[in-house]
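Chapter review: from sequence to fold.
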Amino acid sequence: MSAFLSQQVTHPGAAFEFASEQPQVAVIIPCYNEAENVEKVVKDFQAPLPDASIYVFDNNSTDRTAELAHQAGALVRQVFSKGKGNVIRRMFADVDADVYVMVDGDDTYDATSAPIMVDKLINDQLDMVVGVRIAEERLAYRNGHRLGNRMLTGFAKLIFGRSFNDMLSGYRVFSKRFVKSFPAFATGFETETGITVHALELKMPISEVDTKYGARAENSASKLRTYRKWWKSDGCKRANASSSHLSLTSTIAAISALDRCPVMNLWISHPSIISVLSKKNAA
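The token string follows.
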């Protein structure tokens, strides 16, 4: 653990009563075909968090992701059910720690922000700290994703009265209480929206930290296909088939098409959002 972190842990409250003097930190990394990046990601997080346990959860990769992660010093676990949501469910269930640092394995997030985020979680007695992506390169954060994220953030604020600046970030720090209480129903990338809703609905103490966000390596491909994800989404098909919510469908469809279609999947499945949208539609 960083010296900065150990110096700053001065007032753990009831939610942060650790078994030992130093909280156990786990870095959990979901991966699918990240052979170009995973070794660097593991080593980058070992440096600022030398006492943390680093786990790579490999989701049926067809390249050398698992092998290279192991060589870099990570604890490698296999998840055979495809989809990021399935991986997060396993990570949250299988890893036991006091503090969890979740980061994508694509080498786009800044590891040096991790101690700052962990310190903030512990010192302010929070349940989640979100790394807000500050892109230093235009190609790092595509315009469609940026606009979609802003619109989805506004949509969440409309429903819950508060939101985040980057509700779809793949870089977050959690308390054990959050991880062990999260009902991981999602199977794919919409799981980030589920995490956000869980925090907002339960009015958990949360915060954000700005962090640098870079472009992927030239030889690695993004798993996101914004518009294709939307058109192939089961949520899209079910929503457009639903006549009772038809007046809202086109609006939410346009928003969701811009970034992964998580809100549409959430709208179909989450009781709080279904209730709010039904009332607004009937008004």
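Two observations follow directly from the output. The domain at 3-213 is CATH 3.90.550.10 (Spore Coat Polysaccharide Biosynthesis Protein SpsA; Chain A). Residues 23 and 98 are 6 Å apart (CA to CA).
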